Amino acid sequence: MPPKFIADRWTAEGEEAVAKHIQATMIPLQHVRTLRRQFEQDRKRIICEPVFKVNDRVELLDYNNSTRVRPARVKKVVGRRICVHVRDDDFDGEVEDDDRQFGDDAEFWVDQSSFYLFHVGWACYNNYGLGSTKEYRRHAQQIADALTKGEDPPYASGDVTPQKIRSWTANKDTPFEWKKGMRFELMDPLAQMFNELRVASVLEVLKVQ
């Protein structure tokens, strides 16, 4: 149904004008493809081919302390959404009462491309805060050392590698490089309606693989 002002104009020109317009413009559109040919394949791939599997290990940004990450395991997978939790066999530090990421009963859901997720060894590779057991830290440091030297890291079974973590690719036509001290406007992640911006500054540029 067209807007009223258009319908009134068509009616004023007579019913034949309306019929001619439909014949000339509307009918040809019924055969026009509105979605790209690969849409159905892409949809199935995105929904049905998750990157992670149950028991995969990642490094998870601490919800209560953003200055550190902790090793965590994938608990459930539903399409692109994964449920992760921090277990006591990887983390032996103090646990706050409102820690929503720790424990067998914890369910922290994120998208598989979430900025909460990092590959195993990321914290040591970037000298970022890491809350974990000594055993995990030794393992992560070995991976970080190998990445620095350009060698094959000694990943354990289930360790998530950099290839599984989403990374941003630079546009070669418009090269851009983040630098320490840059200022920009950032969507406030704590704003419930995601409708507030904050002025932010780049404190450090971390390495990616």
Automatic annotation (TrEMBL):
Transmembrane segments: none annotated. MBT repeats lie at residues 8-133. GO terms for cellular component: nucleus. It comes from the Eukaryota. Pfam families: MBT (PF02820). One of its GO terms (biological process) is regulation of DNA-templated transcription. InterPro entries: Mbt. SUPFAM superfamilies: Tudor/PWWP/MBT. This is Uncharacterized protein. It comes from Strongylus vulgaris.
